[in-house]
Amino acid sequence: MSRVSKINHSLILGFEEFERALDHAAELQTDSYPPFNIERSINKETGQEVLKIILAIAGFSADLLEVLQEGQKLVITGKKGNQASDNYLHKGIAMRQFQRSFILADSIEIISARLKDGLLAIELRLPEPKTKTRKIEIITT
Q1: Residue at 114 is within a domain
Q2: How far apart are CA 104 and CA 123, in angstroms?
C-alpha cells in the first residue's frame, strides 16, 4: 500500500526520503541524556563550514565510548563502566548507558571525534553547496 505524503503540495515532488528522515528524527528525540550542543563555524584555514556536536559525558573514558556512522546515521554509544566505589552519600552525576543518534545529509563528512574534559566533540564538514543548472531541450513533434 502506498504511503500518504505529509508534504502535500502539488509543486513539491520526490521528497519521500526526506519525509522518512524527519519521521525518524522525531522518534529519536525521546531521550534527553546525554545533553548536547551543536555549533556552526567557519574553518579559518579552509573557509569551509564546520558543524560540531558536543556531548556532555562526564565520567566516560574513550574505551567506554563508540562513535559509528551507519549509512546516514551518526550513532554515539556510551557503555557503563565498573564503578570504583558504590559508597555514595549522594549520586547526582548520571553515568548510565546511552545511545544518541543524529541523521546526516549524504554530503556531510565526519572529520574527527575528540574527548576532553568530559566533553565529546564530533566535528563534521559541510561541503560547499553546488548549484545545478541544466537547460532541457524541448523536442517538437
Answers
A1: yes
A2: 12
The grid coordinates listed for 98 are: 546511552
Residue 19 carries which DSSP code? H
> Distance of alpha carbon 66 from its chain centroid, rounded?
14
For the chain, what is the domain count?
Answer: 1
- The verdict on residue 97 lying in a domain is yes
Helix (H, G, I), strand (E, B) or coil at 21: helix
Kindly report the pTM of this predicted structure. 0.71
- What cell numbers appear for 70 in the block? 551507519
Q: What is the CATH number of the domain that holds 117?
A: 2.60.40.790
**Which pLDDT score is estimated for 26?**
66
Rounded percentage of the chain residues whose pLDDT exceeds 70 = 78
